[in-house]
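Q: How would the structure tokens look for this protein?
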Amino acid sequence: MQHVSSPAEDAPTVTWTPHGRGVKEGYAALPMLTAMRRGAGGHCPACGAGRLFSTWLGVVAECSQCHAPLGRIAADDAPPYFTVFIVAHVVIGLQVALERIHPLSVATEMMIFLPGTLLMVLALIRPVKGATVGLMLKLGFMKADAEPPEGSADA
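A: Here is the predicted structure in token form.
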């Protein structure tokens, strides 16, 4: 792993040199959609062979095959935002269409759309997070290795 510091020492830029099975020379050559598709499938965005998740939404520290630093990618709020964006558009569209075709009571709509919304969110959150991790790895959005703790003299 290489560390390259930018002119401003307070904002280090971290790069990762790919190596291992399935990773071509220079990760930048990998197409963005390929990285996102691999991540959405739960595989390492870099090589496609290793696992991306250690738990339901927990990303592994590094790929077991190519040693990509997947744990240093902080997807944080982006996957839930994208998931809510997708699900809201689908659910609201279906609800408006159903209302125009056959008006239902509020209780009936709740019995249909609340479980449907929950199932859709649970089905989409993991692939969306994987695709987001793939996108962020491709674009190089990684945290530095050792960040000093808050309140320390180095911070």
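Residues 2-139 form one domain.

The chain is about 45% helix and 5% strand.

Upvote if useful.
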